[in-house]
Amino acid sequence: xxxxxxxxxxxxxxxxxxxxxxxxxxxxxxxxxxxxxxxxxxxxxxxxxxxxxxxxxxxxxxxxxxxxxxxxxxxxxxxxxxxxxxxxxxxxxxxxxxxxxxxxxxxxxxxxxxxxxxxxxxxxxxxxxxxxxxxxxxxxxxxxxxxxxxxxxxxxxxxxxxxxxxxxxxxxxxxxxxxxxxxxxxxxxxxxxxxxxxxxxxxxxxxxxxxxxxxxxxxxxxxxxxxxxxxxxxxxxxxxxxxxxxxxxxx
Amino acid sequence: xxxxxxxxxxxxxxxxxxxxxxxxxxxxxxxxxxxxxxxxxxxxxxxxxxxxxxxxxxxxxxxxxxxxxxxxxxxxxxxxxxxxxxxxxxxxxxxxxxxxxxxxxxxxxxxxxxxxxxxxxxxxxxxxxxxxxxxxxxxxxxxxxxxxxxxxxxxxxxxxxxxxxxxxxxxxxxxxxxxxxxxxxxxxxxxxxxxxxxxxxxxxxxxxxxx
Amino acid sequence: xxxxxxxxxxxxxxxxxxxxxxxxxxxxxxxxxxxxxxxxxxxxxxxxxxxxxxxxxxxxxxxxxxxxxxxxxxxxxxxxxxxxxxxxxxxxxxxxxxxxxxxxxxxxxxxxxxxxxxxxxxxxxxxxxxxxxxxxxxxxxxxxxxxxxxxxxxxxxxxxxxxxxxxxxxxxxxxxxxxxxxxxxxxxxxxxxxxxxxxxxxxxxxxxxxxxxxxxxxxxxxxxxxxxxxxxxxxxxxxxxxxxxxxxxxxxxxxxxxxxxxxxxxxxxxxxxxxxxxxxxxxxxxxxxxxxxxxxxxxxxxxxxxxxxxxxxxxxxxxxxxxxxxxxxxxxxxxxxxxxxxxxxxxxxxxxxxxxxxxxxxxxxxxxxxxxxxxxxxxxxxxxxxxxxxxxxxxxxxxxxxxxxxxxxxxxxxxxxxxxxxxxxxxxxxxxxxxxxxxxxxxxxxxxxxxxxxxxxxxxxxxxxxxxxxxxxxxxxxxxxxxxxxxxxxxxxxxxxx
Lengths: 251, 211, 498
Prior knowledge:
The structure holds 3 protein chains of 3 kinds. By secondary structure, chain A is α/β, with parallel strands linked by helices. Chain A is 51% helix and 12% strand. Chain A contains 14 helices and 8 strands. In chain A, helix 4 packs across helix 6, helix 4 packs across helix 7 and helix 5 crosses helix 7 (99-109). Chain B is of the alpha/beta class. Helices cover 25% and strands 25% of the residues of chain B. Chain B has 6 helices and 12 strands. Chain B has helices spanning 2-13, 37-49, 62-69, 84-91, 108-112, 164-169, and strands at 53-58, 75-79, 96-100, 116-119, 123-125, 130-133, 150-156, 160-161, 177-180, 185-186, 194-195, 202-209. In chain B, helix 3 (62-69) runs parallel beside helix 4 (84-91). The longest helix of chain B is centred in the first third of the chain and has 13 residues, at 37-49. By secondary structure, chain C is an alpha/beta fold. Chain C has helices at residues 26-34, 37-59, 64-80, 82-95, 106-120, 131-135, 138-144, 154-161, 178-188, 200-217, 243-249, 270-281, 314-318, 334-338, 340-345, 356-367, 388-392, 399-414, 423-434, 437-445, 448-453, 468-471, 484-491; strands at 3-4, 7-8, 98-103, 124-127, 148-151, 220-223, 227-229, 234-239, 253-259, 263-264, 289-294, 304-310, 459-460, 476-477. In chain C, strands 3-12-9-6-4-5 form a 6-stranded parallel beta sheet, sandwiched between helices. In chain C, strands 10-7-8-11 form a 4-stranded mixed beta sheet. A two-stranded antiparallel sheet of chain C has the order 1-2. The longest helix of chain C has 23 residues, at 37-59. The chains are: A alpha/beta, B alpha/beta, C alpha/beta. Chains B and C meet through helix 1, helix 5, helix 6, strand 9 and strand 10 of B and helix 2, helix 3, helix 4, helix 8 and helix 10 of C. Strand 9 of chain B pairs antiparallel with strand 11 of chain C, so a sheet runs across the interface.
C-alpha cells in the first residue's frame, strides 16, 4: 500500500525517532511510505483548549495538505491525533459554517488510522517481526481506549514481539493526567494523577513503559525521569520497529 | 404569570429539539415464567443476600408458619383486608392485634409501639429481590409497613416475576406504591454499609407455594 | 480595581458565592484539595469501592447497552416534548388532588415553599435529600424566615450538623471520616449518649434515634423527586435509608421541588430507569426503597400535596442544541465515581452542588459563564477529556464533547478582552505557525535553544513561567538533533520512499 505518514507536531519536533520507527516498520512490511512535507498539526491543542476558531486554519491546512497528496491510507503514531481527525475536524468546520471543509475532513478521516489500527485492521498483521528483549508494560492512552476503541490491538502486536517480557499495567485504564493543556492549567491534579500512574508502572518492575501516544509518554516519562526511577518510555512504534539487526535508539 | 412565561420560554427553547429514535432492544421478559421454580429460587437467593428471613411453605402450612414467625413479638398491626385465618394466626399466643381503621385509624405513635406488621404484597421481582406493595386491602396504608420494626410479608408464588419490566407492567401507577429491596441501609459513613436505619430493620418473607 | 501592567481590564461584577458558584477557580480550589491527605484517602476509597460495585452489577445485565440507548432516547424525547409533557403532568397531578406551582428561579421557588409551609402553621419541616433544594439554597432561606428544616438523610444530616457543604451527589459526606462524624454528633445532637463510639453502625443508630422523633411528629415534609411520570402524574423517590418513606408518608403536607427536566413520558419508561439508576449510582441491583405516589390518596399519606416545578437556568441549557443533553442527567453520580479529576480534587473544588463531570457541563449552563473573572468559566477545563464519564453515564451524555464546546464558548466570551495571561496571544500565534508548513519548520528551529537548556543534563528540568507549571513536577527531554522532517529530507528525499 501507499501509506502517508502523519508525523504529528509533537513527534516531528521532539520525538522524531517515533516517526522514523513508523516509517521503517511500514517499509519493512513492504509498503511505500510518503510524507506530505507541508503538514504541521492536527489542531487538537487549539480545539481542546477552546480556541475553536483559531483551530480552523490549522484543520484546513491539514485537510488540504493530505487531500492534495497521493496515498491509500494515512497513519499517525498517535491515538489523540487520529481521534481529533476522526471526531473533531468536521465539528470544527461545521461550527464556523464551512460544510465543504467538513465533508473533505470526513473523507480524509475515513482513511486515517492510528498505528495499531492500521497494522491489525488494514494490513492484517499482528506479528511484525520485531525483537525487543525487555520487560515492558503498556499504558492504553484514553483516546485510543475510549475514542478510537482500539481494544486489544496494541497488546496483540506487543505479545508477538520476540523476546519481550510483557507485564500487565495495574489500573491501566486510568488516565495518566496529561490531558493536553490540562497539564499546565491544572498542573496539581495532573501531577497527582501522574503519581498514581507512575506508581502502577513501578509496581510492574518494567524497564520500559510504552504507549501509542507521544504526548502521554512525554508526561509519564517526564515524571519517571524527574524521580530518577530508571524506567524509560518507548513508543509502541519504536518497539515494533526494533529488530535484532537494528535495536531501537532512545528518542 | 410565571407558569405562562415559563411555558413560553420552554416552547421557544425546544422548537428545534428532535428526539433520537428509541430502539427498545432491552429485555422485557425473563427466561422463566412467573411463579416458576427458577424464579422462586432466584428471589429467595436475593432475599437471603440482603439478609431478609425467608421461608417457603406449602399453602396448608401458612397459618402455622405465620404464627411461628411472629413468636418473638407481642403486638401486630394488620390491614382489615388481611385474610381472616392469617389475622387469627397473628393473634395466637395472646399477641395483641391492631386492625388499622377497625375501629380507629392508628396514629404514628400507636404504630411506633407495635412490634410487627403483617401484610401481603402486589408483586415481587426475582432478579432484584424487590417486593412491591400497592396499598391493597391486605396491605393497608403505607404507614403500617413503615413504622413497626418488623415486617412480615406473605407472598404467593404466582406473584413472583423474573424481571423489572414484567413487575412494573402489573402495577396500577396511581396507587401508593412502595418497592422494597432489602432492609434500609446507608453507606454514608466511610462507605461502610450499615443495615437497618429507618424503616423496619427486620424483613421476613413467607413464600406460599401451590402445593 | 484590577489592573495588569497598567492596562485596565474589563471589570466584571463580583459574583457572590451561591450554591452554583464557588469563590475560587477550579485550579485554585483543587490545589488545596489535592494536598489534603484525608480527603484524598476518603475519595480514593469511596470511588474505588463504588466503581467496583457498579462494574459488577452492570456486568450482570447482557442488555445494559440497550438500556442505555433507550435511556438516552427517552430523555431526548422528554426535552423535545417538554412543554406538552409538563402540561400533561400538571393535569394528572391536579386530577388526583395535588397542586402544581411554577418557579422561574431559586428566589421564586423559595418564596413559594415558604408560603406553603407558613400556611400550615408549622415552623419546622423534615427534608428528604434533594439536589434541587440544595441548588436553590432552600434551607438557608427557610432559616431566615424562621422555619427550621431538618435534613433526614444521614449524609445530609452530617453535612447540616457540621455546618458544611455536600461534596458528592450521592454520598455528600464522603469527605468526613468516622471520628469527625462522631465529633459532630456529640456536639450537635442533644440526645446522643456521651459514650458514643465512632463505629459506623453506632453512629447510624444514633441518627436513627435522633430522627425518629422528628419523623413521628412532623407535619410538613419537603422532598425532591427522581422522576415524574407525565402520563399518570406519578412521582418517584429512590432511596436507601427509609427516611424518604418516613417523610413521604407520615406528615400531613408534602411539598416536592423538582427540576422541569426530571420527567419521563410514561409509567412504562420506569422499566428502563429503575434498572439504570440503582446499578449506576450505588452499584446495587435495586436500592432498598422506592416510593411512588400520585397526587393524594385519601386516608394514606399526606393529604395535601404540592409540586413545585423549577427552572432556575434549566431553560438556558434547554435552548442550547449542544448543551441540552446535560439535562438528561438522572443524578446517579456514576461520572463522579469514575472521574480521575474528581477523585483527587473532591466535590468542593467545583464550587457547586453539582460537581464532577456532570457539574462541569451543567453548572456553567445553569449560571452562564460571565467572562474570565467568573470562576465557573474554569469548570469546563476541569477535565483531561479521558472519556471515562461518557462510558459510565447511563443515559450516554457525551460529556467530553460538551466540555470542548463549553471551552469554546468560554474563549468566545472573552474575545476582545481576554484574560491577560498570555494564553490567547500564544494560541493565536501557534495557529498562525501551524497553518503553514514553512512557518512550522521555521518555528522548529527555535527548539535548538532548548538543547542549550538541557545542556549537560540531557534533560530540561526548569522552564520559565508559564511552562514552569510543567517542570515543577516533570522533566522534558532534550530536543533532538534534527526534526523528523529534516531526517526525511536527508534520508528519503522528495516525499517518497523506495
